[in-house]
Design brief:
Layout (H helix, E strand, L loop, with lengths): L12 H10 L16 H16 L8 H7 L5
């Protein structure tokens, strides 16, 4: 099992939901966050993401992973 978490525009939610259902996702949970960030908070999140990437705590989307994730629609 894998858990994915990402931020997208609200207008894209239905498209992503359709893709995930086509891929066989069993549980879909959408959490809308109307919280506005300050400029400082925004850059702090970017800095944290850069730190996580430097520590190897991210998974890169390789051509093989992309093919596996989207095989039913490509």
């Amino acid at each position: 099992m894998a858990v994915l978490s990402f931020e997208i525009e609200e207008s894209e939610v239905s498209k992503i939901r359709t893709i995930l259902k086509a891929l066989g996702a069993k549980k879909l949970k959408v959490k809308e966050d109307e919280t506005k960030m300050t400029k400082e908070e925004f850059y702090a999140k970017i800095d944290e993401s850069i730190k996580q990437a430097a520590e190897g705590k991210v998974q890169k989307l390789t051509p093989e992973l992309k093919k596996e994730l989207f095989k039913s629609i490509l």
